[in-house]
Amino acid sequence: MSSNYIALADSFKNELKLLESNLMEASDGERVQSILVTSSKSGEGKTMSAISLARKFALENNYKVLLIDSNIQSPKLHDVFSLPIQPGLSECLNGNAEISQACHSTDNENLEIMPLGIPKGHISQIIKDQKLEKLIAELKADYDYIIVDSTYVLGTSEVSMICSIFDATLLVVECESTKWQVVKTAADKLTSSNGKLLGTILNRRQFYIPQFFYG
């Protein structure tokens, strides 16, 4: 894994601790086990946030964590962790690989990576067949946390189609770049798709979506 990613991840571990606490408070004490990480648009640091959260849970909390790449627009986790892109998520969903084959180990025994794999077929059919929902439910028996690095919300349909499957959705916002109107549009799209939007990550700080976003 790139040292640049490690250094940046360690630089905001305090914010991640706050995020972990607020996740539990926002969910009324219910167990948040599967977390979808997304953003309004490309280039907002979504993948970095997902990696940082996964590393924090695995390294500092000693949770068993699986980090999944579902970003079909621009998969990155296999490159970051120097892994083959397959077998991965796509092969599991298509029945061409077992979960154990698609989960790749890292230098930390508590953190495993499931790369995207090579997608075959449209995601709408996968959702219709409930393959992803069944896979996440099965993974919950083996991992304390499942963190999913997804594609961005606006201009794509994938996130709105899968967000309801997860216990929580986090929206990454690029500080002083993304307009609040854009964030509101993304937040509305998630909530209208029954996504459990619990908070945002704003440039290494954690905030909840302001109430007026839903006004």
TrEMBL record:
GO terms for cellular component: plasma membrane. InterPro entries: AAA_dom, Bact_polysacc_biosynth/exp, P-loop_NTPase, Wzc-like_C. Signal peptide: none annotated. The lineage of its organism: Bacteria, Pseudomonadati, Pseudomonadota, Gammaproteobacteria, Alteromonadales. Keywords: ATP-binding, Kinase, Nucleotide-binding, Transferase, Tyrosine-protein kinase. CDD domains: BY-kinase. This is non-specific protein-tyrosine kinase. It catalyses: L-tyrosyl-[protein] + ATP = O-phospho-L-tyrosyl-[protein] + ADP + H(+). It is an enzyme of class 2 (transferase). Its EC number is 2.7.10.2. GO terms for molecular function: ATP binding; non-membrane spanning protein tyrosine kinase activity. Pfam families: AAA_31. The keyword Calcium does not apply. Belongs to the CpsD/CapB family. The keyword Nucleotide-binding applies. PANTHER family: FERRIC ENTEROBACTIN TRANSPORT PROTEIN FEPE, TYROSINE-PROTEIN KINASE. Residues 34-178 form the AAA domain. It comes from the Bacteria. It comes from Pseudoalteromonas piratica.
